[in-house]
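Anyone else keep sequences and structure tokens together like this?

Example one:
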Amino acid sequence: MTRRRGFTLIELLVVIAIIALLIGILLPALGSARRSARRAKCVSNLYQYGVLMMGYASEFNDYQSAYSWLPGNYRTEFPDLYGASEPTGFQAVDIIRRLTGRRNFPPMDDRYPQRRYTHLILMDYRGEALPDQIAACPEDKYLLDWQKDPINFEPVPIEPGGSVSWKMMWPYSSTYQAIPFIWAPDTKRRVGNQTFTTVEPAPGGHNFFNPARLPLGGRKLTEVAFPANKVAWFEFHDRHSKSPGIFFAYKEAKSSMLFFDGHAGAESTSECNEGGRPNQPNLDQPTVFQYHPDLTWEPPTQSGDAAEQVIGHYRWTKFGLKGVDYGGEEIGAPNDP
């Protein structure tokens, strides 16, 4: 009779060790592949933003996709969305009502929607129901969770003050922000004896702007001097390079971004021009502001302090739409200084 031979304990341990070694080798590669796939999806979202941006401009006399309602000069099917002195908040609510079916969504007339909700103009042009998944990076877990239940979403994110409407809008927000020059003038202007300013960061942090004394909107795509070198939309927090993420203005960040010629990719902030100051266009210094992560889902500062100074880079390009972010020196000419 022949005797059946089994594994010895040493052989079994060797096999287990080899399997553990292979897992140790393969897991980082699998993790890297997953991150690469999520980055590709994020870039694809912005590419779709670019298709919508170009389509909007071609259909609306080359105007940038920005809020367009003016006091006393707009139409809506909702009677309660008339009468605001600054009706762009009403325009944002009009879009949300039509694309969500939430026809009782409360009006908002206490905030400018441009900073965080300019993408709603693109979503309206796209014509899909809200919330729209192309507005969310696949690594933006908070926004993806809010999108699952936009009526009873948790946790409820709150900025200081704000109307009920503002606090209900977060599931319809976006991972990506438009640069301010899509909806605001490049620099301050002098008209007669008066000087009118454009938007700039508020002293207190990165989530607020000082209101402009110049009219908002009305920018055209043809105003962009170097479309392949100028960022249009960008991932506000780079969630792909490091967990839990990096604010775009840090040199370590590599945010996904869309350029005005329609191409999208991921570029390092360290390789970008530092930018300028829109209300001091002849001053050869960048915009400096505070990154103060006071919202629960925002990544911490690099130092771990409560706030840190950062440079504006492509958010505040020198010479605005006439300037260059990547692939060349800061060139251009300010409007009226």
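And example two:
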Amino acid sequence: MQVCTVYHMHMDWDKLRIFQAVAAAGSFTHAGDKLGLSQSAISRQISALEDSLGVSLFHRHARGLILTEQGEILNKTTHDVFTKLSLVESQLLDSKQKASGPLLITIAEFLGTTWLAPLLPRFTAAHPDIQLTILHDDKLLNLGMREADAAIRLYRPEQPDLVQKPLFTMQFHLCAAESYLVRSGRPEDMKDLKNHTLIGYPVSSASPYATPNWHFAAAGLDPETHPRRLLINSVLGISEAAKNGLGIAALPDYLIKRTPGLIPLLPEALAQPLTAYFVYPHEHRHSKRVGLFRDHLINALQDNGG
């Protein structure tokens, strides 16, 4: 089997890292840009690796590079090895007396900006040796593939290998600016929303929570066909549009309270409440950095009354 051949031959770690970069980039040029090497240097390293293994790792096409079957096998193996090495590196860093090293947290943009950002100064002051990176992304990053160390998500993850800690629950309401209500009137009930401009989330975009357009559904409207609609693929953008009188939006209560000029509407109109979870891979359960960040959030929520 080809896998056995891979393990019995002397392998150069640098060549394997270059191979992985090329496999991910799909071209020598893009991999060279990422690694700071020339295209010819990358090509030489790949050719040398192929010679040492006695197999072709890539099909060369005018449009770029495609992994051969042997290349797929090697790519999966090297990815697993480098992932494990990265994990070992994290564990070695965490074995030190004082927590230090990089910590990458991913969170939905609106939540990172409006809820998490004010909680960060105390954490960075208490743990100056932790290099914190906050990645605002409404898409799902794969924690198991080490795209992030931990995540704050607005739904319960389904993967069994993830540890999840509930943080808080948020409720949603409809709201609009006074300027919009003066111009267009105040809706009397949900059916009345058909006569109003509704601000929602594009159906085709990845949203940070499950039902961003529940107000359209509750009014019997389709966000893609309702003639009076404004769709924005950002919760912060939606809140700004509502604040500026462009229509009626469905937003988390805490965001309505902290945005001057937004007036809650139709208190009986409620979406399903959402719970925010702190989520991390099972192998990080002993990570000092992840644990300190999790505990900081929980303590901050308790200090603020949940």
